[in-house]
Each structure stands twice: as C-alpha cells, then as structure tokens.
Amino acid sequence: MVKKFRTYLTEKIPTSPKAKVVACLVVSIGLMVTIASMKKTLIVNIDGKEKEIVTYKGTVEGALQDNKIILDSKDKVTPELNSKIGKNDKITIIRAKSIVALVDSKKLSIKTAEANVKDMLKAEGIKLNEEDRVEPAVNTKITEGLQVEVTRVETKLVSEKQQIDFDTVVNPDENLDKSVTKLIQEGELGEKEVTYKVVYENGQEKNKKVVGEKVLKDPKNKVLVKGTISTLVLSRGGDMLKYKKQMSMVATAYAGDGITATGVVPRRVLNGMSTIAVDPSVIPLGTKVYVQGYGYAIAQDTGGLIKNRKIDLFMNSESEANTWGVRSVNVYIVAYPGEC
C-alpha cells in the first residue's frame, strides 16, 4: 500500500526540488497515521492470569505469534485463532493439562483443556453407559497429573438349572429288630431353575444374587423303615427276648392276699406272667415286662411307696419276699397295653 502511494505521488506531483520535499513529508505523515491505526492493545488471560499485549496483527493467531505466546495443539483459545481482533479485545487461553485415563483395560495419556472430567471424556470420545462408574466424580476439576478411572458396569439376569436334593425319611417299624433297616422307596432328585442378578465390572463377575426360583420337578423322598425291637438272650439254650425299651430300676417284693389296683388277684407264675406293682407314670398299667432275675410280668398293681423307677414284685410267700429283699434290676418293656 505504501509503495503504491509513493508511485502515485511520483507520477502526479511535479518533480521540482521543493515539490519533492513536500511529497516526502506527506508520505511520512501518511505512514505514521497508518501504523498508528494498526496498533492494538489487548488483554490475554492464560489460566486465569491476565496480561496486556500490543500487536499490529489483525487476527488472534497473529497477535499471539507477535507476542511469542506459544500454543499446544490441545490448548483451548477463545475466540478462535482465525477470528478478527480489535482494540481492547480479550483473548482467553486455557492450557491443556496432562492426565491419565484408565478405561477398557487401557492406560491412556491425554492432554486436555476441558474444565472437568465429564467434558474431558466427551471430548475424547469416551462414552459412558448408564451403570458405568467414574472415579473421581464427573464434576471433578481437571488438574495436572489427574488419574481418571472408568469402570464398566453391566447387570444381567442369568438363569441356570440346578438339582434339588431329596430327603431321607426313616419310619420306625415295631415288628422289626432294631438292627434291621429296609428300603421302601428310592429317592429321586428334583430340578429347579434359579435366576440370578449378576453384576459385572470390567467384564468380571463382582456380585451375584438370587432373584427368583422355579421348581421344574419335585424331588421324591427316599423312604426307609427301621426296626425298634431290641433282643436279649435269656438262656444258654438261645431263648430270645424281644423288647421295646430297657430301664434300670430298684425292685422290692411283697406277698399276701387281696385285690390289685386293676381289680385282679395277684399271682406269681414262674413260667408265665406274674404280677408287679409300678408307678403308672413310668410304666403304664397293663404293660407286659421282663424283670431280670424274676421273669415275665404284667403291671397290674400300684403302691404308696412305689414311685418313679421303683417296682414291687409279687411273691407267693413272705419268706420269698424277704429272700428277694431289695435289688437293682433291668426291666425290659415287652409290650404296652393294647399291643398284644
């Protein structure tokens, strides 16, 4: 522009010495006015710190270059670098900071000028799903050296079939010896469908919780019967006594005439059923027993002194009763009233 102006003056203005001096003065003044009009004073804010710069350039980029303000490719500049500028305009620069992001099993080194974690993730194209977890929180301010970790969280409903164990039921059988056990019914496994709520973090199972069960097939119990009868060898000849229960008791003896508590005449039968007196709360009246050293008997009588684990054995004479005295004996329950 200055060259064209000088050429114009050379061609249009007379070439006398005086005229040339005048022309030079005019050119100098014009140049000074033009340069003065191009000068701009600007405010530059870099990460919150302001300073004043002077430039003769017409764009943001030119003004920064004029003042040797070097930019990183990730620095954020407002207004944009190609924007026109005028006097007293303001340029804001946010310097990019180096951070580390741990996401999808990768360690990413990132430079960003975004204000917070959320904006940084968006700018870097790192998408978050609804359940994903970010540490620190997404509203955390970006600072130099910050480490951001994204944990991918996914919840699924998973169903699987499982066996249902059967129970074993053992029923007593009073007709079998207690050493005998018989199988009545084989057990069968059942089947159920169990639904779990499974939480995965970065593809690894983190938590598993049952949220539903549906029985597809009921199990069938295994049924056994087990004898309750105990056996006692009574003689060398092999006579066997089958009994339901054994009790250790104190036995005394009595003799005499009269009627028992059950209304019968007491008796002593060596090879049959004799009469004994009992505490009915321990041995019910009418129970058939075998008394060690005495033989088979029926609980047919009671007595004022016969309490708890005491019994009184009927004898045919006072001498037999005295001979018996007081003894500790085993009493075997053979049958309860009504069983035989």
Automatic annotation (TrEMBL):
Membrane-traversing stretches: 21-38
Organism superkingdom: Bacteria
One BP term from GO: peptidoglycan turnover
PROSITE patterns registered for this protein in UniProt: G5
GO terms for cellular component: outer membrane
UniProt keyword list: Membrane, Signal, Transmembrane, Transmembrane helix
SMART domains reported in the protein's UniProt record: G5 (SM01208)
Residues in G5 domain copies: 150-230
MF terms (GO), sorted A to Z: hydrolase activity, hydrolyzing O-glycosyl compounds
Keyword set includes Nucleus: no
Pfam family, one: G5
Protein name: Uncharacterized conserved protein YabE, contains G5 and tandem DUF348 domains
